[in-house]
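dumping this here so i dont lose it
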């Protein structure tokens, strides 16, 4: 499928998955007061990945050769971990403005 839009990502979370937060079942993670912060933050990965200035940092080809969001791939090496740190720093700078 490749890189989703932020809207596609948020819509993909509305699939009746079973989620608990602070001991209570959450109906919709995209509307929950705490989890909405998390989903909005992750959605920023999809916004920034669409920007050609950051595409090399935020995207990677998966095993099928599709361009996907690097942040959703498992961290397997120290290099991956350092790259993930750079993504978090970038998002923090962008989101704080």
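and the seq i came up w/
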């Amino acid at each position: 499928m490749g890189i989703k839009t932020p809207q596609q990502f948020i819509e993909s979370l509305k699939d009746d998955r079973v989620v608990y937060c602070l001991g209570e079942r959450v109906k919709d993670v995209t509307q929950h007061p705490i989890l909405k912060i998390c989903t909005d933050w992750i959605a920023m990965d999809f916004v920034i990945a669409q920007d050609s200035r950051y595409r090399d940092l935020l995207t990677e080809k998966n095993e099928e050769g599709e361009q996907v969001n690097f942040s959703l791939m498992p961290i397997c090496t120290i290099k991956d971990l350092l790259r993930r740190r750079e993504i978090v720093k970038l998002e923090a700078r962008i989101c704080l403005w």
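DSSP finds four helices and four strands in the chain.
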